[in-house]
Amino acid sequence: MAVTTMTVQHRGEGAIVWDIRNLLVNDSITWTTDLNYSAGSLEFDIVEVDEGFTPHNGDIVKFYWDGIRIFYGYIFDFKYEPEKFTVTAYDKLRYLKNEDSLVWPVSTLSQRFSKVCNMAQISHSIVSASSHKLAAEVCDSKSYFDMLKTSIENTEKATGNLYFVAANYDVVELRKAPYKALTTVVGDKSLMTKFQYERSIDDAATVVRIVREDETKGQKSTATASGKSAKDTHYTTVTASSRHNIDNWGRLQHVENAKDKSNKAQMMEQAKALLKSKNKQAYTLTLTTLGDIDLIAGNAVYVKIQSLKDIGLGTRSVLITKATHHFGTKYTCEIEMKV
Fold it and tell me: Is the pTM higher than 0.85?
């Protein structure tokens, strides 16, 4: 396996295409994909030569590994030190960080995805369409990523389907997870070289408060969903499954404003829904494996690790949320998963 294409080209018709394969510093190519509304990135080092070639921000980068198209993007950053450039390029998802102000009518995620891609002037395709109608919304000075995030989260709540955006070389696609449900097994005897399993309550909440300002009386009315009862005339407290977690983790409180024109019952529904989503640990599994092009964010693989099975995590198909590939004499990657 080897780099079969690695070119840099200034934008514009007739610009010189530089083949930089022979300039690459060994084992310096890193490709990252991430479901967390981030552009895919390609980082690499090249040696300086006296042939008139210098990378420029905005230059087009194309990368093939073993004849397979991996990355198409643009240089956004480079660092120079004697006889070496360190280059960072991003795929077309980077242009979804552009900010705008839009008023969305009632429309689907697919329609909003097409709209923001057209606004960002990037080629795109809908691989998995959503027919769910989203409520009208005003987005003021938000990035296209933030607009899509809200639409994706609301679509998932309504349909149970998780959508995401990814770059397929030079085309940005709307996909449904998992994009590829691979039969590949990663574990003790297959691909994996090491792993790390983490449980965290850093972003958890055992108490959720929803606050609504009463404009007529100048007071605030609140609804609280928690695991313990509380006698407070200003709040309504509901006992939920977090009682056990308050005892174990302490009081971890999250506060949000009520949705527009919510009454007390609707505020309680909002509090309970938030509590359900936040009153839990985050489980993260990170694996270091031998390189495999299909191990990218949005795909799912089977994980089979005996020591994890011993603590209750048996063989199962798990969604990859982030993947970092290191190309070189040894092709390896790290994949992160939510389990």
Answer: yes
